Amino acid sequence: MIKPIHITEENCTNMNKRTFLITLIFWSFRQLVFAQISDVALLTVKPMLYKKTEFNISLKAQWVNPYFQQDIALDIVFTTPSGKKLTLPCYYDSGRSGEKSLWKARFAPQEKGRYRYAATLREGANLISTSKTANFIVKPSDGNGILHVKNNWVMQFDNGKPFRGLGENIGWESRASDDSKFFKALHEDSKYNYEYMLRSLASHGGNFFRTWIAAFNLPVDWQKPVNSNRYKASDDYFNPSAIVKMDRLVVLCDSLHLHMMLTLGQGAFSVRTGGFSPTSADFFVNPKSKQRYKDRLRYFIARWGYSPAIGVWELFNEVDNVQFANKTKPISPDSIVQWHNEMSTYLKKSDPFGHPVTTSISHRDLKGLNTLPNIDINQKHIYKNTASIPKNIESYENDFHKPYVIGEYSYEWDWSKNFDDFAPEMDSDYKRGLWYGLFSPTPILPMSWWWEYFDNRKTDIYLARVRLVMNKMLSAGNGNFEKVPVKDSDTSVIDYSVKCGDKIFVYVFNPITKPTEINLTLSQSFPDYDLVVYNCENGLYQSVGKGQLIAGKPVINNWPLAAQTDAIFILSKKSTKKSL
Fold this sequence. Notes:
Layout: H1 9-34, E1 36-42, E2 53-60, E3 73-79, E4 85-89, E5 91-94, E6 100-107, E7 113-123, E8 126-130, E9 134-138, E10 147-149, E11 155-157, E12 162-163, E13 167-169, H2 184-188, H3 194-203, E14 208-212, H4 240-256, E15 259-263, H5 280-283, H6 287-304, E16 310-314, H7 319-323, H8 333-350, E17 357-358, E18 378-383, H9 389-400, E19 404-410, H10 423-438, H11 451-456, H12 463-477, E20 482-483, E21 486-488, E22 494-500, E23 503-509, E24 516-522, E25 529-535, E26 541-546, E27 548-550, E28 553-561, E29 566-573
Parallel strand pairs: 13-14, 14-15, 15-16, 16-17, 18-19
Antiparallel strand pairs: 1-2, 2-6, 3-4, 3-7, 5-6, 7-8, 7-9, 10-11, 11-12, 20-22, 21-24, 22-23, 23-29, 24-28, 25-26, 25-29, 27-28
């Protein structure tokens, strides 16, 4: 028989306590049932240094949107052989809320030896499930790893190998409809896809390119892509057809040893495209838009961050043009700079692989943007003034003490003009920009625009000429560069000189319309050297023999240089070792 409870004030208080405890136990039990990691499967049989190591994670949890990290966030926490803790974001693959779901992780080990790892599941700030700890051993590989900034001149891979980026913009694959007045058919040509363009770039000696995520190209977060026949509309949060394309692009780049500056842009931020902001001005300050962007960054890191193909994350293309899109009411520069500070800081915190971060302006600087601590590389675009590239690079580096890159350049920016009317000037400018970059302290050489045009004219084959000299520089100095002042009696001649190890490279260009003679003196003592001259146009070398000296300083006298041509003088110290 159940005794009746006599209701008193004290009993009510006790019942309230019991009810609270029972409710707490019930919801805690419910959370354990509905939020558990059931399995973490290492798919890669033999994990290798710098290579992709894949995991499948099975779990049961509830969410509104699996891509919102404030809703649900799955990570794998690694302890590296050296004892570092790395947190790798994982990404949702399939399954429904409240049922068993599949998640994936892509990891690239940057150390050899034994790793320990465990998956963690969070709802907001609350840790709700942790898997058992497991381990795997990473063996050496022939890979180089992820790129990082070393100094103003070079980047370097995880294994320490020096790297300088050489390539061009390949902003997007051909669009369904192009607005070029004279090159509409060329720009709409279906052959201009990544498979064709990147293989061509690699065959010419390129190792780097810049490309955009936009509504018409790699539209990862656009449910309704525009102006492209390559993608399908979808109700999914991330567009499946764009995800497949991005996966293929990363694999293709890895196979060709190419590295990209991936321009992320604003994404589908507008309320018209599923976002939260009615305007760009609101995008930079709206907390919901900023959180959506961080969720987007997290997904990119989780899915593609493992790959060396991601050379640099670029937050914005020409953010000053976004700022002044409404000329009568420009966006506050402070809000743009603060947004960049917040997003670059988030990237640095969330990317366990340490990819460099950049953003770009067209021509208008935003106060404070160049000094943000988590922007590794500053960037500007220069048109109709390629000759100014070396001074621009050095000026910005002197002012802000970090690498500077010219992300776009060309003889002309106006697509309403017929480039064929001044095609020789377009070609010459293309070549000059590369050489000016090679002899300037920049880790990525200036990248030309108008990729279809230069491919059609076969101008981009010229990349191979620059690659030959770049390789010699990197090999001679193991990535170390030192500027060497040079004096030429002909003030119209353009010249730049750098020392790499036991070699000095001197670039000379005759910009005028008549031949001249090169008579130059280097400021640095460099006795007992051999001289070789490289013809920039045909890629041939001419051995001159023993170099001349005046007061211990190298001199080059009476060297003929035709109108609007260039050459490189390579000075090599004679070896002091006696042959056996």
